[in-house]
Write a structure and sequence with these properties.
Structural class of chain A: alpha/beta
Number of strands of chain B: 14
Distance between the termini of chain B: 50 Å
Number of helices of chain A: 12
Radius of gyration of chain A: 17 Å
Bound molecules: pyridoxal-5'-phosphate
Helix content of chain A: 40-55%
Strand content of chain A: 5-15%
Oligomer: heterodimer
Strand order of the largest sheet of chain A: 5-4-3-2-1-9-8-7-6
Order of helices and strands of chain A: HEHEHHEHHEHEEHEHEHEHH
Largest interface: A-B, 44 and 37 residues
Radius of gyration of chain B: 19 Å
Strand order of the largest sheet of chain B: 3-4-14-9-10-13
Shape of chain A: globular
Chain lengths: ~280, ~400
């Protein structure tokens, strides 16, 4: 089975360039603006969209993404409305891969089977669920693969060669390498160190490897894109969104553009990268 | 419920850390290798007599164990039913049962070569115990505490600082224990290479619920021996309060396979079960948070709800996974006590026995006040007095003075 994610990475490979992966929180700062932002991302140069599922207790995220989730929850965002948002996006874009990223509890409460059916039919391509390591694959990963969704696993600096095969076994779409041991929004990793880690993972898998955590600028996105198959940016976009809000935390006329402009600048950085020879 | 009764209630968890459907390891990949290392280190330590011998030395001479099993004669007379015994965990060094577990984990951290210890704390008792043992063994100590709890448990904040710990008031979320736990997990993810996370209750990813239970089981094991000495038989019932459930599990576990022993866990009902409370079993359902599946307070969308209790140590929207399982298999009865009931019990025990309890075990005493009068005079009831009330004196003093005005 070929998914939108597979197709997109095959195209990029043909073009000889890395992917630019963007993360935004569903429903931040409100569902309508959020849909406009998601629609604007591919036009501004995003190759793959990660859409955060809001959760009260995002243990692996820093203050920016936690605040984004709480803003969304405050205006009534739910998992169901997150899927509605994806459906809205699919009305205008049927090619850009979209991955939901979040924590397990909202999905568990929604019901795994119902969630997978609804996610698939709304146009979701893959899942990144931070608190489901391979040890808990029976919960969601294996049913998701059966339902035709990619399950994208995080590999981290603590994932050594002995553990990597376990992490990669049921991974599909791409591998998300977390460049630092830490939370989102933390300091950036050294691109050369990341390059070594990517090379190490490549010895275990043929899947594309995208790198995230700590990338904020076009220069950093470019440096990572020279070492990996994709650069992921989240916190910087969430911060740009937040800085465009009014004093009450509501969207302004600037909000959609603030995210789109930074996306365009970062995309330029990624496109300027010279891909490492494989 | 159609849940098969196990041959033993004491054999869990399975090798993947599950008690029935509860427990497990729901954490970010960064932490998994650490958690697997911890499990290995704990298995090795458990099998090493030198580890046990070293712990026993500190338990006796530093913590002050065994803690007495005290017959509360005046409380018994007042309630007019069961003979009530108090397991005096409040007499431990640092003032609560938390020190039993912290000693075990610090010994493990030392074996693993970790020099930096982090902990989360609600009432501050776990933080104080951790700060104390870090001082004793010369380890760096960082304690995360919700900003709300920093306010209401000032005496413990000052104690931790005197002991050399850094206390971080957590401003995110509801600014109580659950947020302190999130923040501790974030620190751990960031500093995995040199940091040991000392969890304060029987919750979190496997193997924490098991190792904390094992370290706390000394409470029940001593109770068994002591009751045999004074009464020549097993107790008829056990009562303990539940935040995450470590003092309760410590008392209960050695008795789970003794069918004659009735067991009661008491959750915090706050303003009442239909209002703000912290009773995860009475008012929650199974979900996944902080590394384990267990009963949680949450809304219809799986978002975690605010807990409320007058007692900072019980103010948590979850409960240890083994308790969730014991509830579903029906071995333990989970009850709840409101803020007001706990306050009344706090005053009753202080006045009748000259023992000022912490607000946490005051919840257990509140249910003893209901249960004991309905039991015959030869019924032996043990209540876990998990901590002393020094930390609560300013808070309760304000409430009582406010009421008398
Ligand atoms: C004295 C005392 N008892 C009980 C508790 C609740 O924790 P647990 O349920 O793990 O025993 C606390 C927690 O801070 C405490 O300080």
């Amino acid at each position: 089975m070929t998914t939108r994610i597979d197709t997109r990475f095959a195209e990029l490979k043909k073009q000889g360039r890395a992917a630019f992966v963007t993360y935004v929180m569903a429903g931040d700062p409100d569902p309508t603006t959020s849909l406009e932002i998601v629609k604007a991302l591919p036009k501004a140069g995003s190759d793959v969209i990660e859409l955060g599922i809001p959760f009260t207790d995002p243990m692996a995220d820093g203050p920016s993404i936690q605040a984004a989730g709480l803003r969304a929850l405050k205006v009534g965002m739910t998992l169901k409305k997150t899927l509605d948002l994806v459906r809205g996006f699919r009305k205008v874009d049927n090619v850009t891969p979209l991955v939901l990223m979040g924590y397990y509890n909202p999905i568990y409460i929604y019901g795994v089977d119902k969630f997978l059916a609804d996610a698939k039919s709304s146009g979701v391509d893959g899942l990144i669920i931070v608190d489901l390591p391979p040890e808990e694959d029976d919960e969601l990963c294996i049913p998701a693969l059966k339902a035709g969704l990619n399950f994208i696993r995080l590999a981290t600096p603590t994932t050594d060669d002995k553990r990597l095969p376990a992490v990669l076994t049921n991974t599909s779409g791409f591998v998300y390498y977390v460049s630092i041991a830490g939370i989102t929004g933390a300091a950036a990793a050294d691109a050369n160190v990341v390059g070594q880690a990517v090379a190490r993972i490549k010895r275990h898998t043929g899947l594309p490897i995208c790198v995230g955590f700590g990338i904020r600028t076009p220069e950093a996105a470019r440096a990572i894109a020279e070492k990996a198959d994709g650069s992921v940016v989240g916190t910087a976009l969430v911060d740009a969104l937040k800085n465009s809000l009014d004093a009450e935390g509501r969207a302004t006329a600037k909000t959609v553009n603030a995210v789109a402009e930074l996306t365009a600048a970062l995309a330029q950085g990624v496109k300027a990268a010279k891909q490492a020879a494989e | 419920m159609n849940i098969a009764k196990p041959n033993s209630y004491r054999s869990g968890p399975d090798e993947r850390g599950h008690f029935g459907i509860f427990g497990g390891r729901f954490v970010a990949e960064t932490l998994m290798p650490l958690i697997l290392d911890l499990e290995k280190a704990y298995t090795a330590a458990k099998a090493d007599p030198a580890f046990q011998a070293e712990m026993n030395g500190y338990l006796k001479n530093y913590v002050g164990r065994p803690s007495p099993l005290y017959f509360a004669e005046r409380l018994t007379e007042h309630l007019g039913g069961a003979k009530i015994y108090l397991k005096r965990e409040e007499l431990n060094h640092t003032g609560s049962h938390k020190v039993n577990n912290v000693l075990g984990q610090i010994m493990l951290a030392r074996r693993m070569g970790k020099k930096r210890i982090i902990a989360e704390t609600g009432a501050g008792q776990h933080g104080v115990a951790t700060a104390t043992l870090c001082a004793r063994f010369g380890l760096e100590c960082v304690v995360y505490m919700g900003a709300v709890d920093v306010e209401r448990q000032q005496p413990n904040v000052i104690r931790m600082e005197m002991l050399g710990a850094k206390v971080f008031p957590v401003q995110s979320g509801t600014r109580t224990l659950k947020d302190a736990m999130n923040e501790a997990l974030r620190d751990w993810v960031t500093n995995v290479h040199n940091t040991f996370y000392c969890i304060g209750t029987v919750a979190g990813p496997h193997p924490y619920p098991t190792l904390v239970r094992d370290f706390q089981s000394i409470i029940g094991n001593e109770t068994k021996t002591q009751m045999q000495e004074v009464e020549g038989r097993l107790p008829d019932s056990l009562v303990a309060c539940i935040g995450g459930g470590s003092n309760a599990m410590g008392l209960f576990h050695p008795f789970l396979d003794d069918p004659s022993v009735e067991i009661f866990g008491v959750e915090a009902a706050g303003h009442g079960l239909t209002q703000l409370h912290a009773a995860s079993i009475a008012g929650g359902r199974p979900g996944v948070l902080h590394g384990n599946r267990t009963y949680l307070l949450m809304d219809a969308d799986g978002q975690i709800q605010d807990a409320h209790s007058i007692s900072a140590g019980l103010d948590y929207p979850g409960i240890g996974p083994e308790h969730s399982w014991l509830h579903e298999v029906g071995r333990v009865n989970y009850l709840s006590a409101t803020d007001d009931e706990a306050l009344a019990a706090f005053q009753l025990l202080s006045k009748l026995e000259g023992i000022i309890p912490a607000l946490e075990p005051a919840h257990a005493i509140a249910k003893v006040m209901e249960l004991a009068p309905k039991r015959p005079k030869d019924h032996l009831m043990v209540v876990n007095l998990s901590g002393r009330g020094d930390k609560d004196v300013p808070q309760v003093g304000d409430i009582l003075r406010g009421k008398s005005k």
